Amino acid sequence: MRLGLALGYWGRGPSADQVALAQEAERLGYHSVWTAESWGSDAFTPLTWIAAHTSTIRLGTAVAQMAARSPTATAMHALTLDHLSGGRTMLGLGLSGPQVVEGWYGRPFPSSPLTATREYVDVVRQVLRRGAPVELDGRFHPLPYRGADGTGLGRPLKSITHPLRPDLPVLLGAEGPKNIAQTARIADGWLPLYWSPLRTEVYEPSLAGAPEGFLVAPMARARVCADVTEGLLPVKAMLGFYIGGMGHAKRNFHADLMARMGYEEEARRIQELFLAGRREEAVLAVPDAFADEISLVGPRERIARRLELWREGPVTDLLVLTPDPHTLRVLAELNS
């Protein structure tokens, strides 16, 4: 199991230590570093800055939102960064949810998410292969565009720039069982939002068709500390926000996932509290057991034991979310 450093997206502004963290992760032998986006900082610009200050560590988006760019624009970002970094780019994509897609990007959330994802990946692959001009008779991403409001003058185009690698890895952030199963068919890897090494049976049916070499790269908050309860608070704060606020009361993919993992009653309670404006209570309502399952928190000896559970399953890459260089070093030592 390889280690990656997950930096997420910016809060109020850029973190001054992200480049230093990435450089330390590279020095420690981490395989990859990953950035994200929500409705603020983008995923590609920080990754490009990190690329300029590192030399070997892989550079991934976990995830770049599909609604933020057309598939050809995303492919342009990926192939450009791949050239500038010497072939280190890994493209992680995700649909996001209706609130972000419609509220921030101003476009309809796809009525068929599976079809929209499949078409998006198809176009990205065509651009990267550069075997012929890009064409797709698609429902969501038709190329050329032939809608009634178009000019009718569009024609298939092939990238002017020759991609460095036609097989640049494409990974997908997927949560629903059908979406995960499709990911195993059309992508090079999967980026789970929550992964519990104690409940791998939740994912087994969806991953049954995954080919050899398929990447499973979950993100996990990590912190070496003496007090487990205190160390879990940032995990619970994240879960309270995602489960309570990242979605509508009737359509929240994160809450649905928590329910499938055995915490349905708790997930609905978190939503209820968060949407009622009782955010601190929503965070406290997150079960310590669930937060603990999906993270690596506590003294070194405890993390060492729990890390063995992660290595026993199908995880190929553990993306560690921590601002702490000491935690990065401890995990590198334990995983060596």
Distance between the termini: 10 Å
Number of helical segments with 4 or more residues: 14
- Helix content estimate: 40-55%
Spans with pLDDT under 50 lasting ≥5 residues?
A: none
Using the coordinates shown, work out and report the CATH topology of the largest domain: TIM Barrel
- For the report, how would you describe the main beta sheet? 11 strands, parallel
Oligomer: single chain
Query: N-to-C SSE series?
Result: EHEHEEHEHHEHEHEEHHHHHEHEH
- Integer count of domains: 2
Shape designation: globular
Q: What's the CATH C level of the largest domain? A: Alpha Beta
Radius of gyration: 20 Å
Number of strands: 11
Superfamily (CATH H level) name of the largest domain: Luciferase-like domain
Query: Which CATH architecture of the largest domain?
Result: Alpha-Beta Barrel
Query: Mean pLDDT across all residues, rounded?
Result: 95
Q: Which range does the strand content fall in?
A: 5-15%
Indicate the structural class: alpha/beta
Task: Describe this protein's structure.
- This is LLM class F420-dependent oxidoreductase.
- Keywords: Oxidoreductase.
- By secondary structure, the protein is α/β, with parallel strands linked by helices.
- It folds into 2 domains: 1-220 and 299-333, Luciferase-like domain (TIM Barrel, Alpha-Beta Barrel), CATH 3.20.20; 225-297, no CATH class.
- It is built from 14 helices and 11 strands.
- Strands 1, 2, 3, 4, 5, 6, 7, 8, 9, 10 and 11 form an 11-stranded parallel sheet that branches.
- The longest helix is centred in the C-terminal third of the chain and has 23 residues, at 253-275.
- The chain is globular, with a radius of gyration of 20 Å.
- The relative contact order is 0.13.
